[in-house]
Design a protein that fits this description.
362 residues; five-stranded antiparallel sheet; disordered N terminus
């Protein structure tokens, strides 16, 4: 591999295809020496691939499809795509039902045996077995959450918003915006998802937990609350969550309307980042040895409605996807955790997810 090739890393972009001009999943590359990104090219045509995941050790990409119906059934979908040597995507088997309406999140467990899906509209989570070739089988488990929250416009019922494998083996965490709970499941090949001994952990009423980020040391879990704009820090014991702190994502003097969206921990374990839609910023936090957070400033995202962002595998750059202004902006991450725009951007209709390719499939 040449020096020029080794200095770049590919990533994929999930989009909303209706009513925008996007046509599916796009691919681009980031130059790790200059911080410049290539133009995005259509890698795979599909409808509303709003959230993406890449298999940990296979060249396979999964997309949550926000569609109203699949094969005559009112459900969202999950599609698998083989990643070709040229980075283009080829459908891998048939798309499967997501187990509910409005799938908004997909991830793959550490073993690579299950695709895990959260259905916002259906208020449910599902586990779909992954075959040896990376294709999907129908869901082996669908668990519908129950309950509501105090916000009459946003919490009338359950709205599952994310699902990720917990640190260590055999557990899964799901944040539900509608019920103000983090659900804890055990995961095994025979029964897939089953409620853990301590099946859920409440957050404050009205918080609306959205996305979950895991510390690389496996000891801490961070949850961003969409409705109250905070990051909640938890200690993870290997089977249970214990709250250890709650920190606002906004400046103290901000009074406008905004909702938090994405959250991520830097690969070095020193910083947490979250996005604010309305304030249109990335909030940075320093992580103390005990897992608690200290605010470390805000950086404008160079657009509106930063629904998602991603940190490249080397930890050098952060890419913010501004859904409303149809652009992705590149930021250089300084050693102190601060963000500085590189001047490089991508124009693309309705970007809603950025996913870097792990080194194993590059």
């Amino acid at each position: 591999m040449s020096t020029a090739q080794s200095a770049t890393t590919p990533f994929y972009i999930g989009t909303y295809t209706s009513p925008t001009g996007s046509q599916g999943v796009y691919r681009a590359t980031l130059d790790l020496e200059t911080g410049k990104v290539s133009e995005a090219v259509l890698a795979g045509t599909t409808k509303n691939p709003s959230f993406l995941a890449i298999h940990p050790n296979k060249p396979v990409l999964y997309a949550a499809l926000e569609i109203g119906e699949l094969n005559g059934v009112k459900t969202g979908g999950v599609a698998a795509f083989a990643i070709g040597a040229d980075g283009m995507l080829k459908p891998l088997g048939e798309a499967q039902g997501s187990g509910g309406q409005g799938p908004c999140y997909v991830s793959v467990d550490a073993s690579g045996k299950f695709a895990l899906v959260a259905n916002y509209g259906g208020g449910s989570v599902a586990a779909l077995p992954i075959a040896d070739d990376g294709s999907l089988s129908p869901a082996i488990t669908v668990d519908k959450h129950a309950g509501s929250g105090p916000n009459p416009k946003r919490q009338q019922g359950p709205f599952a918003h994310s699902i990720v494998a917990a640190p260590g083996a055999g557990f899964v965490l799901s944040a539900d915006l509608g019920t103000d709970k983090i659900y804890v499941y055990q995961l095994d090949s025979a029964h897939a998802l089953t409620p853990a001994a301590a099946p859920s952990v409440p957050v404050d009423p009205g918080d609306g937990p959205r996305h979950i980020a895991l510390h690389p040391n496996g000891k801490f879990v961070y949850v961003v609350t969409e409705l109250t704009n905070h990051v909640i820090a938890f200690a993870w014991t290997g089977a249970t969550l214990k709250r250890i702190g709650k920190t606002p994502t906004l400046p103290a003097d901000f009074t406008g309307q905004t909702t938090s969206a994405e959250i991520a921990v830097h690969p070095n374990g020193k910083f947490v980042y979250s996005s604010n839609r309305g304030h249109d910023s990335i909030a940075a936090f320093k992580i103390a040895d005990d897992g608690t957070l200290t605010p470390a400033g805000h950086t404008p995202t160079g657009g509106q409605q930063p629904r998602h962002f991603a940190i490249d595998p080397t930890g050098q750059y952060l890419l913010a996807a501004n859904q409303k202004t149809d652009n992705i902006v590149v930021f250089k991450i300084s050693p102190d955790g601060s963000l500085n725009p590189t001047g490089s951007t991508i124009k693309i209709d309705a970007p809603v997810c950025v996913r870097f390719v792990p080194k194993a499939t590059d």
